[in-house]
Amino acid sequence: MGKKLKETIVFQINSKIPQLTKIRKAASVIKQGGVVAFPTETVYGLGADGLNAKACARIFLVKKRPANVPLILHVDGKEHLFDLTDKVPRETEELIDKFWPGPLTLVLHKSRIIPQIVTGGLNTVAVRMPDNLIALNLIKYAQTPIAAPSANLFGGHSPTCAQHVIDDLDGSVDIIIDGGKTNLGMESTVLDLTVKPFKILRPGGVLERDLKKILGKIKIADSTKKNKYRTNMSFSPSAKIIVVEKTKGQINKMQKLVLKLIKSEKKIGVIVTEENKNEFNNCLVKVMGPEKDLKTCALNLFSTLRSFDKEKIDIVIAQGIKRKDIGLVIMNRLQKVTNKNIK
Ligand code: AMP
Ligand code: MG
Predict the structure, then answer these.
(1) Please, what's the largest Cα pairwise distance for the chain?
(2) Tens digits of per-residue pLDDT, 246-287?
(3) Which long-range contacts (CB under 8 A, 24 or more apart) does 249-257 make?
């Protein structure tokens, strides 16, 4: 960050037994049109009163997020979905019974009470109920749905702990609630219920296979193509990222690439699974987790990528993962930040 614009207060709150006085204070800031960063089970969110257009405008300003990328509204009870939406398909109740609170965001026709700025001008709205006691109590005491994108500067990696938020937003938000590390480290699945068959716009914490058990056929948006919802918008973090796809000879291809790039006198990093950590020399090696435990890999992905930026690495070579279940989510996030895919 450059110059500090304001004093940001950091609250330490235990996410298992949250101190309600601090949460009430943060909620009153939200009510007055302020912005508060808070933990959810997926990543940290940058929250404002979702029914207050002016407050939501601050989110876009603080994040430097383009106005046409819509925000997700967070609610503290399943029933609130129906105040915010119109023409809800019958499958909705079963979905929220099974997956809420949790990392499933539903896109539905929006009701009139939602300001245009929240939906980036679209006539649909994205809603979810987070599975984190700090988030739920913050919404409860603010008595309003909280609009919240990830609490990072636009174009960067989503924050999975309060320090990431402090690094990006100290001095430009009112309060940062430090509730420890998030559980999943990946954002929610965004499911569009306004089209038939229903469509996953962004893979995330709730897996396709579990949605299929309830919905039968569903489509998945192509993560290599842009769409009007901006779910596949690409980013450009500081380090250039090259993904080497999971194919035969993958590690060998990565090793050759390291050797080639080192000659350009750039600082090279690789991000690999545990099993391959000893395969590389002359570069900074970071491990996302064991290949057998992709949940851990997903949890560590963003913080590991961020740490390359902190260490001023120029180029990161990432070990691609098989695009299945959590592997699909990891590859979707890598796809968004990559400059090049090597097959
Ligand atoms: P983030 O705020 O970074 O977690 O991203 C929220 C995601 O939800 C973005 O990828 C948006 O494109 C998507 N989203 C939010 N609102 C809508 C909507 N009304 N229709 C479709 N996608 C949406
Ligand atoms: Mg984000």
Answers:
(1) 59
(2) 999 999 999 999 999 999 889 999 999 999 999 999 999 999
(3) 250/319, 250/320, 251/276, 251/279, 251/319, 253/342, 254/279, 254/280, 254/317, 254/319, 255/279, 255/280, 257/317, 257/342
Amino acid (one-letter) located at 122:
L
What pLDDT digit, counting tens, does each position of 125-165 carry? 999 999 999 999 999 999 999 999 999 999 899 999 999 99
Ligand 1: list residues with CB < 6 Å.
69-72, 107, 119, 122, 124-126, 149-150, 187, 190, 201-202, 229-231
Q: What's this model's pTM, rounded to 2 decimal places? A: 0.94
The alpha carbon of 73 and the centre of ligand 2 are apart by a number of angstroms equal to: 14
Domains present along the chain, CATH in parentheses = 9-220 (3.90.870.10), 240-342 (3.40.50.11030)
* Residue 259 CA, ligand 1 centroid: distance in Å: 39
